[in-house]
Amino acid sequence: MHTRMIPRFFVFVVCLGVYLDADATMRAHVTSTVRACFAILRQMNSVRHSLTRPALITLLCALVISKLEYCNSVLAGAPAVLLSSFQSVLNAAARLVFSANRSAHTTPLLQELHWLRVRERIQFRLCVLTYRCLNGTAPQYLSECILPASSRSSGRQLRSTESISLLIPLTCRTTIGNRSFPVAAARA
To answer: What ranges make up the beta strands (E) of 11-153?
Structure first.
């Protein structure tokens, strides 16, 4: 881990390629990821005429979508303003595949490519991690964070103890606490 300084004098830490702000807004991470993705999209735009559509989609998935997907579960509960930057990268990639102009609606393009929107991608990633935690295929430090409702120790027998629902831990701060993995995973 190391600290860096960006032009606005925000201090952040880079851990495993994820930029962590002091105030946990993830603004630095989103900004750097979006900048890198648009740089790749500009380069791919210059060579797209020499590629077939399947080859272009494969390159986009390998070079751009993988950057958006990497550790995107840390963006659970992030403000819509931040997620709209990620969505703009996804929309630009879909327009690049179909050679659509900038004003073209991207919903039909995304549906034809079978690509989820950013918020849905984050939700999907959280659900996959939660499933892996419940089935013992996730790392132990993550599995220990997830508590089934049946683990609640009370003197009464409740219907919730027989369901597959999870306990949502109480948090002190709604901005940061609700974005933590145990809370976001239980809600997903």
So the answer is: 11-15, 18-21
Q: Alpha carbon of 184 to those of 104, 140, 166, 188: distances in Å?
A: 33, 18, 11, 6
pLDDT digits (tens, 9 = 90+) for 155-188: 455 555 555 676 666 666 655 656 666 677 677 7
Q: Among the three residues 119, 141, 174, which one is the final residue of a domain in this structure?
A: 119
- Which pLDDT tens digit goes with each residue over 128-158? 888 888 888 878 877 777 766 665 555 455 5
Judge if 30 and 97 occupy the same domain.
Answer: yes
Final residue in a domain of this structure, among 119, 147, 171: 119
pTM attached to this predicted model:
0.75
